[in-house]
Every structure is written in C-alpha cells, then in structure tokens.
Amino acid sequence: MDLYVMNQGFEVIGIIENEESVVWKKCFTQPGEFEIYTIADTKYIDLLQIGSYIVRYDDDMVGVVEKINIQKDDDGRDMLLVSGRCAKSLFARRIINKQQTFTGTVWNRMYWMLYHHAVHPTAENRQIPNITITDVDASIKGPSGEVQHTGTNLMDAVIELLESNNLGWKVYADYENKNFVVELIAGTDRTIEQGIVEPVIFSDDYDNLISTDYQCDMTNYANVASIAGEGEGSARVWQGVDISGKASGQYAGLSRYEMYVDARDLQSKYTDDNGKEVTLSSTAYKSQLRIRGLEKLAEVGRTTSLTGEVDTGAYTYRVDYNVGDLVTVAEKHGITGNTRIVSIEEIEDGDGYTITPEFSDYTIVEFEEVEE
Fold first, then answer.
1. Are 38 and 59 in contact (CB under 8 A)?
2. Of the given ranges (244-248, 268-272, 303-307), which has the lowest mean pLDDT?
3. 257 — phi, psi (to 5°)?
4. 292: helix, coil or strand?
5. What's the pLDDT score for residue 364?
6. CA 85 to CA 30: how far, in whole Å?
7. What is the pTM of this model?
8. Residue 358: what pLDDT?
9. Is the pLDDT reported for residue 16 higher than 60?
10. Is residue 237 a contact partner of residue 285, using CB atoms and an 8 Å limit?
11. Which member of 19, 79, 319, 338 lies 3.0 to 4.6 Å from 191 by CB, making a disulfide possible if both were Cys?
12. Calpha distance 49→80 (Å, rounded)
C-alpha cells in the first residue's frame, strides 16, 4: 500500500516506505481503523505525530493517528507501531451538550447533529474546522422521524441513527478545497436477486471464498424494548416497540426477548439552541421514546456474523464491490444469504496481501448455482 502523511492543513508532507505491515480496515457505519508497523527511525518518529492524517490515493478513508508506540522486536530492533481510527473519529471529540431534538429525514438529523455541535456550533471554540456536509439524492436520505439527545457523544449519536436505518457514512478529504467532506451512503445492491447491476457472489462453488468464520450468539439478543421516559412512579411515561418498528405484540412465547431502556433524559419540554422553550405533544414524545428503543435494539439485535477471506482475483475491490454493498454469500455448510459488507480489512505484510470482508446479519435466500 502507498501511504502518505498529511498535516492538518491538508498538505502531504511525506510518504511511508518499507513498512513491515499495514492493517487498513474500512467500515460502513463504525469508524474505520488502521495500524502501521515500521522501523523506528528519526524520519518516521518526526513524521508520524499524534493528530497526523494517513491517506491513500486509491482509497477515500483518512486515518487519524491516535496511538504511537516504540518497542523492541525479537531481533532487538526499535520498531514504531502507529495506529488510530478514520476521520469519523473527529466527531467523537464532541458531545451533544444540550437537550436537543432533531427532526426530518435521516440525512437531516445527521446534518443538524453535526452542524450544531461540530461544524457551526454557537460556541466558536467547539467548532471542528474545515468540514462540510454534502447533500445527497433524496432517494437515500432515509425516512423521516425525530430523535432527542442530551449529552450523547456526537459520533455515537450519528452511528446509532445510521445503524438503525441501515445507512452508512464516510468522511473523506477534499484536497483541492483543503477540507473534510461528510457524506451519507447507502451502498449498492449487488445480490443475486436484483437485476440492475452485475451480482457479486462469494461462494465455495465459485472458488472465491477461501475461508469463513460464522458465529451465532443469542446471549445479549433482544427484539422487544420497553422504554421508560419522563415522570416518576405511576406517572412515568412508558412505550413499547419491537425490532421491526411496530408496537410490541407480535413476538410472544420463547421468540420474545425483552430489554429495558431508561430514557429519562428524553423530556417533552426543553430549550432549543436558540433559547426557545419547546413542548412536544404526547404523540411526538412517545414517538421519540420508540425511536430510542429502536436504536437500543439495533445495538443488541445482531446475532449472527460472518467473516471471510476472499480471492482478490475474483472481483475487484472498489470496482465490483465496496464497503456497504449488499452481496450474496454461499458458505459450504449451507449458510447462504444476502448480506451487507459492513467492513473490509486489508492486511499487507511479509506473508503477502489479504482482503477480509465482514458481513452483517443476512437474509436467507434459496441459492442456485448460475450456469456459465
């Protein structure tokens, strides 16, 4: 991988050469991660500082250096281990520092969260400089709704919103204008069932699925939330919602997994950023409680995971498929379904180069081998 170091003025100030290993993990919704392991010479110690940006011209993820470690290896050499997360992590440095309600489409809610608490906050010292939020086509802005936060970490609030709506985001560098651009992304449907683009199928039968790791864990699973809002004792406001967004009655017996959500921080009366007193109707307030319940269910609703090492010659990463795309996976033990690529980890070291995608929960499909 060709890795370059960029300063906070968006100027490339050096290139990393002769690295012994690189891990580059790009994610759909969560912040991506990276790790660079190289000789600890003066050049790299001076170049790689906390807060420096790591960029690749063949990939739009930007790494932010957060950890530096100098250590001796087994041969007695001083080695430099540099790691961090992608530029989404810049927003982890801010919180939603007031009780605030965000309304509109998913994109609108994400926009106003970032705008009020990082891009253009009332207090100038809270501004994260050189960031713009790009508009997107209405078809991927997501459904309308409301969400209220008080003191929530800004990055976590965006992730909760997007994960509960099956959307992702990226923060990439605009080198010409010297700023970061935040963009909402939906991914492309490349499953075998759609007929618009060429499908992407990872299968043992196609000899492009080298290895897989399948896990199913119901330990912390929940599909029904009981949300407790404002009030005390018998006057406390309660709402129920299931993982599909409906009321809470469709799951029963052994198929019902309940969880409690304390949403006392959500209040029907609050002061907005302009100092205006706002009072939500009972319907609007209960809607916010249900949205909070859906966000918490999204955190514990994932029970299956499937990772796999793929043959990089079968499809071209970033051309035939990318992070966030929906693809079809046919694992040799009969685990076959449509799934989203939630992350892709690239590793380059002395053993060569590997790509390992991580797949989300999948929808089982009846898979038939395509005749050539």
1. no
2. 303-307
3. -125, 115
4. helix
5. 44
6. 10
7. 0.81
8. 85
9. yes
10. yes
11. 338
12. 12
State the residue for tokens 């080695």. 79
Phi, psi of 290 (to 5 degrees): -65, -40
Is the pLDDT higher at 117 or at 301?
Answer: 117
Q: How confident is the model at residue 371 (pLDDT cuts 50, 70, 90)?
A: very low
Residues 81-138 have pLDDT tens digits of: 999 999 999 999 999 988 888 889 999 999 999 999 999 999 999 999 999 999 999 9
Rounded-to-integer distance, Cα 77 and Cα 217, Å: 42
| Measured distance CA(23)–CA(348) in Å, rounded | 7
Q: Cα dist. 107→103, 113, 288 in Å?
A: 10, 10, 17
Locate 280 and state its tokens: 């939500």
Reference 289, options 240, 242, 246; nearest CA is 240
C-alpha closest to that of 327 among 171, 188, 205, 225? 188
Residues 90-114 as b/e (b if ≥16 CB within 10 A, e otherwise) read bbbebbbbebbbbebbbbebbbbbb
The DSSP 8-state label assigned to residue 119 in this structure reads I
Among 32-46, 164-178, 297-311, 313-327, the minimum mean pLDDT is found in: 297-311
CA 190 – CA 362 distance, rounded (Å): 14
Query: Which residue shows structure tokens 């890795």?
Result: 3
User: Rg of the chain over CA atoms, in angstroms?
Assistant: 23
Q: What are phi and psi of 162, to 5 degrees?
A: -75, -40
d(CA 284, CA 269): 11
